[in-house]
Write a structure and sequence with these properties.
718 residues, 8-stranded parallel sheet, 15 strands, single chain
Length: 718
């Protein structure tokens, strides 16, 4: 046997072993039922097979990633199971694992399946440990992801680079933001905010990233690591006074002290830093030769001149290949949406064509709303990955625009002229509802399902059995309710800043449809799955949030009419809704503030770092910073009653005082009182208040339905 064939046999055996190990991590019961074996790719395309043989479930795949997709197909369709992307949610299999009585052979429609967003490291993952990551990596493999963003631990690399260039420990850690804000530091939006970063953070994240990329590669993924995009510390100007370093535009209302700096890609120092970074990163984490680089994300470049933009990308790419001749560049197209007025076709063409053909792939970031490949001639013949965003800031509302996203992808696949090479999701936060992202990633495979089959399979696995009411609920959600549009991606009104006579919420679905969804879900005999628990919470809290909007409008009207009786009556109903929203969310740990804060604290080794992490965690999901107050709002248990209800209490108090005294509503007094609360909130460390329910989730939701029956029915059927 030749050496090459020996290595091939080892690789094939390793794929099978990795698939077995994944199945065993999900449940030991799968080890005795499911067997894996290697098959050849289907004309170069990833492929899996699924069949029954001798009482076993036999899954073939051209690699471990394809085998994992085949396993997920068995779990979804035959076992009626959804695997959670959260590590603490066990995989609940049927007592008797079902046989497979058909033969399926499914090929991939696109070669690349991308997942994650820089922002996810802030809105969901800043305090994750290996257990959290291990489950998410398994979930990604089950859903066919083979191109995951992998940016954990890069501050340790940068720390070594900047100190080797002469910066002090204090300077470097002060340049970094706090852990929850690192995504926006990495994207060159802000420096120093909530810093300095503790040294223990750097060490812990290095070890974590090493485990992450090792497991991702074992499951046939190509981790997308970062490269130097030109973002440098302002302090570097003192060490290199002749370097061409310019300040980038201020971002999102942050003060001057937090602005970022860009080193001209033509400056000799640029190549030096790129080499230092890539060599150190490769030493620590290896490389798959694909790098995420976004030089001007949501900030203005030093110049919009086409020639300048072309030179920037050309020189960045040259600096990459000087270190890694196999380097490929992965670029977000978000800047083309966010700064669409600035990036004309001439400027964009110049910027994107600075890189040799085929060496840059674009991530079309927000395709369910705006497909930038259509605006920019398929990115001037560059390959691109069609992406579904679906979630801003980790907001917790019923959202998705799922059906339209699926239809758009099908059209793009047919009309893109072959430039479309992948599909992905660029969600900003995970939240609890996985369906939209699983749906999009499933589009990568040639299942040829009808909408009815998609919904029936989804509903059955959420219920854990073939379930007519669940199918009816999800049919309405899919066809009538799910939607997201710009300006309507925040959580419902209870999480919004109280303002007299003004609400910025737009309800894009018929109230009767969403209420009918909840009624179908409430028709379950019992709840046996985590997915159905989530469905009940997800829909129920949206309904209560919508009711809060209606009651708030009535409250404002009563205040304007100085109707004291109605003001007092409606204020009681508003408090009830806030309390009940808090209690409803308490049924799932990932819909609670306590879980978020405990994650943050558990990652610190000393009480000082634990408090520091908690401050970061509290601030991000409330006041954020700059002009981004409430951007990442969530209607979680503990947060509803412990934070948002306090803001509404101030609003109601000022409004009631105005009505009683006959004086105008004092917006300045309200602003000052809420400002004091918001200033204090991030540094609080006392136990989080919550309103846990002693009932099971189904009983509790039925009780809420009865409590609000008259209001819900009147709203849904005006």
């Amino acid at each position: 046997m030749t050496m090459w064939l020996m290595f091939l046999d080892i690789a094939l055996a390793n794929d099978v072993e990795q698939a077995r190990a994944l199945a065993l991590r999900l449940s030991p019961a799968l080890a005795g039922k499911v067997e894996f074996y290697q098959i050849e790719a289907d004309s170069g395309k990833d492929v899996f097979t699924l069949e029954g043989r001798g009482g076993k479930v036999i899954i073939g795949g051209n690699n471990a990633n394809s085998m994992a997709v085949g396993l997920n197909r068995y779990l979804n369709r035959y076992c009626k199971v959804t695997v959670s992307w959260y590590a603490d949610v066990p995989v609940s299999l049927p007592k008797v694992l079902p046989d497979v009585n058909t033969h399926e052979r499914v090929t991939a429609r696109v070669p690349q399946r991308f997942f994650l967003n820089y922002c996810t490291w802030g809105y969901t993952m800043p305090f994750w440990d290996w257990q959290d990551w291990e489950r998410l990596i398994d979930w990604m493999a089950l859903n066919g992801v083979n191109l995951p963003l992998a940016i954990t631990g890069q501050e340790a690399v940068w720390y070594n680079v900047w100190t080797s260039l002469g910066m002090s420990d204090e300077q470097v850690r002060g340049y970094f933001t706090g852990p929850a804000y690192l995504p926006w530091h990495r994207m060159a939006n802000i420096d120093g905010w909530c810093g300095p970063l503790p040294k223990e953070w750097l060490d812990g994240q290095t070890a974590l990233q090493q485990r992450i990329v090792e497991r991702e590669r074992a499951l046939n993924m190509r981790p997308v690591l970062p490269a130097f995009a030109g973002h440098v510390p302002g302090a570097l100007r003192q060490l290199f006074p002749n370097a061409d370093i310019k300040a980038l535009g201020r971002w999102a209302g942050f003060d001057e002290q937090y602005r970022t700096y860009f080193l001209n890609s033509e400056d000799p120092l640029y190549n030096r830093i790129q080499r230092l970074f890539l060599e150190e990163q490769t030493r620590l984490f290896g490389t798959d030769h694909i790098y995420g680089i976004d030089p001007f994300n949501e900030v203005d470049p030093p110049s919009f001149e086409p020639d300048y933009l072309n030179k920037v990308t050309r020189h960045i790419y040259e600096s990459l290949t000087a270190v890694d001749p196999q380097a490929e560049w992965l670029q977000m197209a978000w800047f083309l949406y966010y700064q669409s007025k600035d990036y004309t076709r001439e400027r964009t063409r110049a910027m994107l064509t600075g890189v040799p053909q085929g060496k840059m792939t674009m991530l079309d970031y927000y395709c369910e709303y705006k497909e930038m490949w259509r605006e920019h001639e398929a990115f001037y013949n560059l390959p691109f990955i069609w992406c579904y965003l679906g979630n801003f800031g980790g907001n917790t509302n019923v959202q998705g625009r799922v059906k339209e996203a699926g239809e758009r992808f099908e059209r793009a696949l047919a009309e893109s002229g072959g430039n479309l090479v992948g599909i992905g999701s660029t969600l900003e936060g995970l939240d609890v509802q996985q369906f939209p992202y699983e749906y999009i990633l499933e589009k990568a495979w040639d299942y040829a399902k009808t909408d009815e089959q998609v919904i029936n399979e989804l509903a059955d696995r959420h219920a854990g059995n073939e379930n007519a009411p669940a199918r009816s609920a999800w049919n309405l959600l899919y066809n009538k309710v799910l939607d997201i549009t710009p300006g309507n991606f925040a959580a419902p009104l209870p999480c919004s800043y109280p303002t007299m006579g003004k609400e910025d919420r737009v309800i894009n679905y018929e109230a009767r449809d969403l209420l009918a969804v909840w009624d179908y879900l409430l028709a379950q005999d019992r709840i046996t799955t985590d997915a159905m628990t989530i469905d009940l919470i997800w829909v129920g809290r949206q309904l209560l949030g919508d009711l809060f909007l209606i009651e708030k409008q009535a409250f404002d009207k009563a205040c304007q009419q100085r109707d004291k009786r109605q003001v007092f009556a409606i204020s009681d109903r508003l408090y009830d809704l806030l309390f009940d929203l808090d209690a409803l969310n308490s049924h799932h740990p990932h819909a609670t503030l306590d879980h978020w804060l405990q994650q943050a604290r558990s990652l610190g080794k000393t009480s000082a770092v634990k408090d520091y992490n908690e401050m970061n965690a509290r601030r991000l999901i409330t006041t954020w910073g700059g002009s981004l107050n409430d951007y990442a709002c969530r209607n979680w248990s503990g947060l509803m009653w412990g934070y948002y209800a306090k803001r509404w209490e101030i609003y109601i108090r000022e409004a009631t005082s105005s009505v009683i005294s006959g004086t105008p509503f004092d917006a300045d007094a309200q602003r000052a009182a809420i400002g004091k609360l918001q200033q204090q909130w991030p540094t609080m460390t006392e136990e989080v208040p919550a309103a846990p329910s002693e009932q099971d989730v189904l009983t509790h939701c039925r009780a809420l339905r009865e409590k609000y029956r008259a209001q819900l029915d009147a709203w849904a059927n005006p």
